[in-house]
Amino acid sequence: MTELTALVLNCTLKPAPTASSSEVLGTEVLEALSAHGVTGDMVRVTDHQVKFGVNVDEGDGDGWPDIRRRMLDADILVIATPIWLGQPSAVCKMVLERLDAELGETDDEGRMLTYGKVGALAVVGNEDGAHHTSAEVFQALADVGFTIPPNGVTYWVGEAMQGTDYLDMDPRPEKTAQTTKTLAANAAHLARLLKASNYPAG
C-alpha cells in the first residue's frame, strides 16, 4: 500500500492551549485517515503568526512559509474551521488567501504544485452554515489545484440558538462519525490514485 501523509490546518480563532472543537474534529479525521494507511499531523494556524497577504512569503517573521512547506509535503490537506456568523472563520479565509499564491507556482511541466493533492474539510459550529462554508472552501481549494473527493466534508452544527460545542458532545454524534469515516476513505483512495498518476501537463 502506498504510504500517504496528511496535514490538518486548524483554523480556530483560539490560540493553544485553549480547547477547540475544530481541533477535536480535525483529530478525528486524522484518526480515520490512519485506518487507510495515512499518517499526519495538525497545525493550529493562530499559533504561527501567519501574515495577511497573497504571496508565498510575506517576509519579516511570516509563519506561512513553514506551513506551506508542510502542506506541499503532504498528499492530503484538511481545512478544519469553525463557523462564525454563517461563514468560515477569519483564519480560514486568511489561509485561503495565502493559497492564492499557488496560482503562480508551477513545476517543470507547468502544473501547479498542488496538482495531485487532495483537499478535504471539517466544519463545526453552533449555528447553520456548514454547506455555505463547504461551498466557499471547496471552490477556493479547487481553484488553486486541489482535488476534492466525493463526500469530502465532515461537519457538525448544533441546534439553533444554543451553546453546546462539538467538543462537549459525549458520545460523539453517530452521523458525524460515519461521515468522517467516509471522508477519510474517499480522500485516501483518491490521494493514492493521484500519487500513482498525476494530472497531465496542460
Poorly predicted segments: none
What multimeric state do the chains show? single chain
CATH C-level name: Alpha Beta
State the CATH architecture.
3-Layer(aba) Sandwich
Q: How much of the polypeptide forms β-strand, as a percent range? A: 15-25%
**How much is the average pLDDT?**
95
Count the helices. How many? Answer: 5
Nearest-angstrom radius of gyration? 16 Å
Total beta-strand segments = 6
Description of the structure:
The protein is an alpha/beta fold and 202 residues long. The chain has a single domain (4-196), classed as Rossmann fold (3-Layer(aba) Sandwich), CATH 3.40.50.360. The protein is built from five helices and six strands, in the order βαβαββαβαβα. It has helices spanning 21-34, 64-73, 90-99, 130-143, 174-196, and strands spanning 4-10, 38-44, 76-84, 87-88, 118-125, 153-157. Strands 1, 2, 3, 4, 5 and 6 form a six-stranded mixed β-sheet that branches. Strand 5, helix 4 (130-143) and strand 6 form a beta-alpha-beta unit. Helix 1 packs across helix 5. The mean pLDDT is 95. This is Flavodoxin family protein. Pfam families: FMN_red (PF03358).
